[in-house]
Amino acid sequence: MAHIDTITGLDRKHRRHFKKVFNKLNDEFFIRESLLDALQVAPCIIEGPCNSWVFVGVHSEIPDSMSLFKLMKFNDSMLKLGLKPIQYLAVVDNMTFAEESTFQVDGSLQVISSLSDYVQIIENKTFIERGEQLIHAALTEFTIDSHSRIKRTFFPESVIPAQCSTRRGKASVDNTAKLLPFFLDYDQELATRLDMVESVDSEEEAQEDISVRLINGVAGSGKTLILINRAALYCKKYPEKRCFLRYTINQ
Known about the structure:
The structure is a single chain. This protein is α/β, with parallel strands linked by helices. The protein is 30% helix and 13% strand. It is built from 7 helices and 8 strands, in the order E-H-E-E-E-H-E-H-E-E-H-E-H-H-H. Strands 1, 2, 3, 4, 5, 6, 7 and 8 form an 8-stranded mixed β-sheet that branches. Helix 6 (186-193) crosses helix 7. The protein is globular, with a radius of gyration of 20 Å. This is UvrD-like helicase ATP-binding domain-containing protein.
């Protein structure tokens, strides 16, 4: 079963149906959304096996370039770097008869000529029935270095700062194999993002603004990393607020 983070970009109805599709994926899949507004290119950013990515979103009607502005801006930056764009599965609720008639016989995918070729339109019913296969087919694989770049962009809270690593950089520059960035594991990343995602359920909206969270773990398990990354993420997401860190040593 895929690892699924809170998905606030979908309403309750779509969230329920999408989760049924995502639950059919194996545990090599991670479904999240970026916490930073500028990087919310899609409600569902899916990290798959073999360093692959795909975006999934839902629309009441076939989207235009204006509604996909953030997505197109991101993929344009990918193309400028010489990288492949990430595919976007646009799940559409209301399809007219003429639009439905242009779908391929095998189910389903349709590329709208007025949009970029990485945008694929899918009828909502088709996605619910065949979403697992469609996601697998749309995955774009990247090199390890490019995959790390994408992950750092969308989820900076998952990056372990170099100052917190025992790695030592080299003074000389060469073209030999290099060490890639360290990332928090999925549980550590969830702890970092905790309470940063807006509530999606009405019964949660009455929660107090301030809450106390206890992170348990043995020595070296990453508790301090979670604290540091959480503070940095809080400052990026809420630049108008102030964040204080108070550190005490156990006696």
